[in-house]
Amino acid sequence: MVSIPELHSNFFIISLSLNHYQSVPQGFRQSKGLSLLLVNSRINRNKHTRIFMEMQGNGSPTTSNQSTINIPHVLTVAGSDSGAGAGIQADLKACAARGVYCSTVITAVTAQNTVGVQGVNVVPEDFVAEQMKSVLSDMHVDVVKTGMLPSIGIVKILHQHLREYPVRALVVDPVMVSTSGDVLAGPSVLAGFREDLLPMADIITPNLKEASALLDGVKIKTVSDMRSAAKLLHDMGVRNVLVKGGDLPDSLDAVDIFFDGEHLYELRSSRIKTRNTHGTGCTLASCIAAELAKGASMLEAVKVAKCFVETALDYSKEIFIGNGPQGPFDHLMKLKSNAHNSGRQVRFNPSDLFLYAVTDSGMNRRWGHSISDAVKAAVQGGATIVQLREKDIDTRDFVEAAKSCLQICRAHGVPLLINDRIDVALACDADGVHIGQSDMPAHTARALLGPEKIIGVSCKTPEQAEQAWIAGADYIGCGGVYPTNTKANNLTVGLDGLKTVCLASKLPVVAIGGIKVSNARPVMEIGVPNLKGVAVVSAIFDSECVLTETRKLHAVLTEATAAVK
Ligand SMILES: Nc1ncnc2c1ncn2[C@@H]1O[C@H](COP(=O)(O)OP(=O)(O)O)[C@@H](O)[C@H]1O
Ligand SMILES: Cc1ncc(COP(=O)(O)O)c(N)n1
Ligand SMILES: [Mg+2]
Fold first, then answer.
1. Lower Cβ count inside 10 Å, N or C end of the chain?
2. Torsions phi, psi of 125, nearest 5?
């Protein structure tokens, strides 16, 4: 057993091997109430984690000097919307979309959908207080954002807690009436807003009706009225005011007025034509809070938030959720934005494998072609998908070349894949990757690239094809069909091997290896429905005129496919 010098202190950093650590009897460790953090570079991460967990599990106090990361944190104090378009649910989605942690104090539970608010159940005040205390006494909150505060008692409780646990900023969305016209907080809360929250708030974000209510019913019908209202609200003691003009009649733009006490800003965005505007106010305020939590200035935060709402509305303008007049929108469009931005509605179409062009830097050098010229010619000649396979290029140059090839491919509606390099695919937002059996496992690539990207895997056997399918690949490449010099030590599977793999594969297949104009026909004629095309390197790129060679191959493939049908 190793000797450990300070066995009576609660926290140790001991550097010793795993065997030595395990030789310290567990009962002895526990009797001393020790918390051990084992620091040893030779111990792999899993073992390290296991030991650390064991220490926590034995009930003794644990402390760690592991470095920690503080994630920006917004606490929303708001009501729940069962339809999840507004309220707490919108706040959570908005913060997630902006990359900020969001904790929640629920003030009321509403039964709500796209038709309206069918019921409101206010959470008892002492339980609202208990939620606030739980969060604020334990977690580091950067910014508090308020939504539905249904009673003056709840406003007072919030005020007390913010005095006890000060935060960096307070964003007040003075929610009173839902878009559907239902009352969420009565006029009795107005006194609480005026006396307690406004003097404490860093920004208040009323819509037209709420601004009017706070200003004793003053009429707000024009942009000029909004400007005056912003100034009057500022006089009530709040640092910044944003009067939102979502409901401004006859306005082609969505105009909001921001006043910081010195300057008035007219913030305009296009008014998206959509029924899906339920929750815009909650989202806007949460985004402001999220940006402030990340360290933005108030004007920056407001601008980013407005832009986010506009983009999300535009992205969601045609989605259909619920049968009422006011639908929710999609906050997390970014998760799908790659497919969206590229204009490729279908993520992967197996028929894209028909004429699959794989680049080769050596061949391009030999013929004096740049990568992008070669890709352009291939695409113009009829290539239906392109893979950049660049083995001897600096990463920086690879990313640049990939970006310019991507533009060419996008203009022709042709997907662009990157060979092996998931990092390069991510860096240039390519449409996917093609990986071999010794590259990163396909399921890891899928986790990194997300559900929208195309993943292809080289497979020579039915077992590998099965694995690729399990791992979430979209297609497999099978070969070498014919002997080839492009790839060293590459086993030739032949037409029979290709057929065997195709029959076993649940995924579409592209054949590869030594395929050219003169021998492509028998490949397409093996007559297996999931063989969708051929992948070629030298057949098109080892030539002076890539365009002509690609056209020739395209013609042969078209003829062969017509004959098979
Ligand atoms: N159709 C729309 N297109 C673009 N932006 C909009 C649209 N409707 C509302 N907005 C914006 O959404 C935010 C919330 O505004 P508003 O709907 O007035 O608040 P609330 O949801 O509290 O009633 C504002 O920035 C507003 O300009
Ligand atoms: C629980 C809850 N909080 C806030 C709103 C306001 O959102 P909107 O003004 O977009 O209807 C709402 N409808 N429900
Ligand atoms: Mg609204």
1. C
2. -55, -40
